[in-house]
Amino acid sequence: MPAPTALKTADDAPPSNLPLDEPQQDEELLLDAPDLPADVDSELILQKIPRSREGEEDGDGMAIDEEGRPRFAPGRDIDPAKRTEVRKVPIPPNCLTRLKNNWPKIYPPLVESLKLQVRMNPRRKTVEMRTSKHTADDGALQKGEDFVRAFALGFDVDDAIALLRLDDLYIESFEIKDVRQVMGTDAQSRAIARIAGRNGQVKFAIENATRTRILLADNKISILGAYQNINMARQSIVSLILGKPPAKVYGNLRTVAARMKERF
Q1: Which is the CATH superfamily of the domain at 168-264?
Q2: Buried b (16+ CB within 10 A) or exposed e, 87-101
Q3: pLDDT tens-place string over residues 172-216
Q4: What angle do CA 247, 248, 249 make, to 5 degrees?
Q5: For the region Disordered, what residue ranges are annotated (predicted)?
Q6: Of all helices (H) and strands (E), which one includes residue 225?
Q7: Which CATH number does 81-167 carry?
Q8: What is the CB neighbour count within 10 angstroms for residue 220?
Q9: Measured between alpha carbons, how far is 58 from 75 in angstroms, rounded to an integer?
């Protein structure tokens, strides 16, 4: 007994304008098709559209191969020195007047040497710096920050400029109470006097022997110099704070000075 055949409806029948032996086109492809005249051939329209040959770039910088696949140009890495970075260095209130008086000496090294954009913000009590397209050194912003911080601590402008010219200079700060617990202002004043000496002779001797710069600001001590030189100067200062006689400290400084001369 033959199998029953399925009934065909009017919806299953192919359109009348297409031959029966050709497959039907997808309806989704015809949703956004432009309204073209019936007598215009689509193949002729496609032939008039210019196509780039293999390896040839068009106006957008994109190449198209023989199969019509796009070939984009390789991406370019962003130079980190060209990115804009901002640093804000806080200035103590007691240093604002000194900053204003020395501002003509501060901004030229930052602008001319490091190629930074600098401004002083008295309202927020900060010095703002940022990189620009002219900044070539990646560490220019860090050098500028160290320079301004050294000036904010109390160092002279000429001493702080050395941070911009030399790469192996650092600043180390510590307080007297970090070395020894001092009770009362009198004991603290005596410790500072032992470090400074009469007319600053002890401090100058330590600076000349260790090739450093020492700053005494209340109970805070800051040392500017190379890493090994900072260690030598700190040992001498710690010995004076702990009560070691200045004569022994001078003897150690002479030995240190002789070693420094042999190295150089």
Answers
A1: K Homology domain, type 1 (3.30.1370.10)
A2: bebebeeebeeebee
A3: 999 988 888 777 778 888 888 888 888 888 899 899 888 899 999
A4: 90
A5: 1-78
A6: strand 220-225
A7: 3.30.1370.10
A8: 15
A9: 17
